Amino acid sequence: MADTQTTTAVRVVGIRFRPAGRIYYYDPAGRDLKTGQWVVVESAKGLECGRVVIAPRQVEASEVSGDGLKPIQRLASEDDLRQMLAFKSKEKDVLRRCADRIEYHRLPMKLVEAEYTFDGSRLTFYFTAEERVDFRALVRDLAALFHTRIELRQIGARDHAKLLGGVGVCGKTLCCSSWLTEFNVVSIKMAKEQGLPLNTAKISGVCGRLMCCLAYENDDYIATKREMPAYGEILLTPSGAGRVTGINVPKETVDLTLESGAVVTLPVRELPGYDQPREQARPVHQGEGCGKPNCGRNKHRMSGVPGAHSER
Question: In the prediction, which pLDDT does 236 show?
Answer without folding.
Answer: 84
